[in-house]
Amino acid sequence: MTTPTTTKTARAKKRRATAAAAAPTATSPATERNPRLRWALYNATAAGAGHFAVWAVTGDPLAGVDLMARMSISVPQLAAAGLTLVAAYAGWKATALVQLHRLPGLFGLAARPVGALVAALWGQGTAPLVRDALNAIEPWGTALSPLLAVGPVAAACWYGLDRRAAAAHLALPARWALRIPLATVVVSSLIYGPGAVL
User: Across 70-170, where does the E strand assignment appear?
Assistant: First the structure.
């Protein structure tokens, strides 16, 4: 048989345990983690691993920077290639929008491919326009060229690898390994960019 004193003691112990569990734990500022520092370390180690891999393959630790320099020189051609793809997709969609694919017979079957081909041919001829536009806004054209060169590559790395790794909830080492291409491309462009502007 339990006495009232035993019951009160048990209740008091239970209240103290509940209060201790609910109370926030005091951590010293020295042991508190900084998410910005963790993010910077995560990306810096990924970029370092990427540059080390490039160095092991090519024998040059700054081979990625050299590649960025070559890509920056060929920005008009790269932009024309990107515009060709975008224009082909837009031509395909525009043909469906105006419903030319509903034409009878062979005309209906050929409408969408022809629309995409015509738009792609327009996009293919835009390299001189891009070159003239970059020359017209000098010195900003030289400053923008590395960004125009690296932007699509970084976007492809993010969309194809990094975003999918995050959506799949992969383990941290696997996500870090899939971050290496994006971090390497971005750091290579950051190393090359100031030299291009100067």
Answer: none
